[in-house]
Amino acid sequence: MNIKNFSVVTIVAAVLVSTTTVFVGTFAVADFLSTKNEEQTQLRTDLENDTEQLASGLTLPVWNFDLPQIMKIIESQMLEKNISDIVVRAGDQVYSMGRNAQWKAIITDGTLSGNDLLSEGREITIGGVKIGSVKIYMSRQFIEQALKRTIWNRAIAIILLDIILVLSLYLLLWGIVLNPLRKIKQYTLALNFENGNNQTLQNYHFHGELENVRHSIYTMVSLVESHYKEYLKLSRAVEHGPASVVITNRDGDIEYVNQKFCDLTGYSKEEAQGKNPKILNSGHHDKKFYEELWNTILAGNNWSGEMLNKKKNGDLFWEAALISPLINSKGEIINFVAVKDDISEKKNMVSALIKAKEKAESVNKLKDAFIANMSHEIRTPLNGILGMASLIRDIFPGKINKEDEELFNGIEGSSKRIIRTVDMILNYSRIQVGEFSTFRKNINISSICVNLVKEYSVPAKLKSLELTFINYRTDIEILADEYSVTMAISNIIDNAVKFTKHGSIFVILHKKDNGDIILDIKDTGIGISEEYLSNIFEPYHQEQMGYGRTYEGIGLALSLVKKVLALDNAIISVESKKGEGTTFSINFGKELLTEEKMIEKDKIIISPSLKEKTEPRIVLIVEDDTLNQLTTKKFIESKYSPIITDSSEDALRIVKENKVDIILMDISIRGKLNGLELTKILKSTKEYSHIPILAVTAHALEEDRQNALEAGCDSFLTKPFSRASLLEMISVLLQQNDNKYYGGVK
What 3-state class would DSSP assign to 208? Predict the structure, then answer.
């Protein structure tokens, strides 16, 4: 039987009994040898004493030849002692008695023989005279029997002692060693790291070294359990994780694959183990790709990249792989671990997104081109219409009566209405798609209000309305986009003029106690009903809808106002009462600079020594639209000498051949270069960089303005424009240029 089948307790008990038995046996043998010698010595001593006593007791019977008394004494002696024969001599007579079956004394001839007899004799004397003798014979058989009885008695005692000792030791060992060992054995057999039922041994406490053993085992088990739980987490994470995991030996032969690998590739674990990952090779990657991979990981470094692999059924799929070497304590690479994600769907999505992006960019370019063209194609002819109408009024000032004057006002009003409507639609569409660009900078809100009140004063006067700007804070600057803020205020003032039949309109700029800059636009117009106020900033909503509405418009103005102001972190609110008027309030937040730190405006410095030029200034008009060429020429020819061209090549030639004082540059022109590209070339050339360039264009968005200024244009004027605004802009730019280049001011 294999020793493994025995329990620890059985083995310990067997060893204990065996050890005790050997010890007792050795003691018994030694005791037997010692007892035998002692018994023999004692028997000899007893035999001598018995012989001496018997000789003394037979003195008188032998003297008297009293045979019955002699026999009686001998028989008594034989019954009491282990004596086999007694021989007595009385004179010439010999009396002998031996043991028979009945233990009776018999008369013999006194002759005894035998090698196994032990004898002792004494003379019987009276007064020093020998009268006889006595000799006692004892058989060695009797001696051996006596020895056996003695030895057996001692052996039984020793065995009992042995049993008691074994039981005592066993019980002692059971309590101190065997039972603790049994509990430790049961504990180890019941260990289950997966279920975590491993705390039993903590409740026991032993003595001595076993307590140290228990504590060491418990500590070891706790440590193993902790590591096992971590291992279990990792193994489950690897086996059931979303990533494909492959472990190979140093030669690249697969030792382990997880379930994700099997699900993805179609290979079972049995099919994959022992194979090389080449079974997934799709042939897409060249030899150099795999050489770089192996050189990297054999050098002990991680490799990451994307692979196009092949499944068992031949289908191709993309994987993003990270391959890492496993290094032992000696610094040797023993395995490689590959963690791979299926990115086929992601690849397809990326490809689709790239195509969609390219398509969207193409559509976006078309949209941008459409918006730009819309603005350009509407503003350009309107500029010609307004310009021609203005020229007619100037040419025939005394021949136009009041009734005909209304016709010109109608042309101007209708044109501006078209421009305002187009601007609102285009700007609103750009805001909706998140492409409304803002350029925040320090702007003077006071100046914007002054210019807008001035602009709307004419339509206000036509309706006999008082339009007044009240400024409680001079030269207030905020950080905002000038175009969007101007557009918002303009729309509100336009609505105020439109919806006010009589009374006044006040534009009030002030500061609240908390430092916020507030612009109130208050009118005494028709007001807004309480029911409509909640929808006032919704697009395409008007209080009066349908064929019977009283006022024109598409319902985008206030919605656009709120959205563009939000881009500048400004908040608009409204208060109104039907029939009494409306107040729109714009909160621009805190003022950008204190009055002490305000940046002073540029001043036009005129040098006293500067001589006024008597010859007319040359103005180069770079414009591709014939009607606008004619309109611009008519606007300026009374004060300046215009030269007109529609292409970039001719413009460069004219600049080289003439002393041009200022250029009116349209952005969209003919030739190899557009207006902005031509401007960059001129401003980068030392010979022509001093010439001021005014961008005069129908591209009216704020980003168009920024692009023009970044290209080098000195200022920006959008179509349609009035004769007065064009002449004023030309005059300012020429004066600034004269001061800079001719008056000594740098």
Answer: helix
Identify whether the C-beta of residue 335 lies closer than 8 Å to the C-beta of residue 250.
Answer: yes
Q: How many CB atoms lie within 10 A of CB 113?
A: 5
Nearest to 676 by CA among 698, 656, 695: 695
Cα–Cα distance list, 546 to 531, 541, 619 (Å): 18, 11, 50
The two beta strands, 662-665 and 617-622, are: parallel
Q: What is d(CA 118, CA 139) in angstroms, rounded to the nearest whole number?
A: 6
Instruction: Measure the CA dihedral 496/498/500/503, to 10°.
Output: 80
pLDDT tens track for 312-330? 999 999 999 999 999 988 8
600 in Cβ contact with 642 (< 8 Å): no
Q: How far apart are CA 52 and CA 135, in angstroms?
A: 10
Give the pLDDT of residue 8. Answer: 54
**Cα-to-chain-centroid distance, residue 612:** 74
**Mean pLDDT of the 376-383 span:** 66
Q: Where are the alpha helices (DSSP H) in 241-343?
A: 259-265, 269-272, 287-298
More confident residue, 209 or 494: 494
- β-bridge mates for residue 695, sequence order: 665, 716
Report which of residues 60 and 224 the model is more confident about: 60
d(CA 407, CA 405) in angstroms, rounded, equals: 5
Let me know: does 196 contact 162? Beta carbons within 8 Å: no
Burial of 376-389, coded b for 16+ CB within 10 Å and e otherwise, reads bebbbbbbbbbbeb
Torsion, Cα of 59, 60, 63, 64 (10° steps): -150
Phi, psi (degrees; rounded to nearest 5) at 690: -80, -15
Q: What is 476-523 written as a DSSP string? A: -EEEEEHHHHHHHHHHHHHHHHHT-SSSEEEEEEEE-TTSEEEEEEEE
Task: Determine the Cα–Cα distance for residues 595 and 537; give it in Å rounded to an integer.
Answer: 35
- Is 699:674 a contact under the CB 8 Å cutoff? no
Do residues 58 and 77 make contact, with C-beta atoms less than 8 angstroms apart?
no
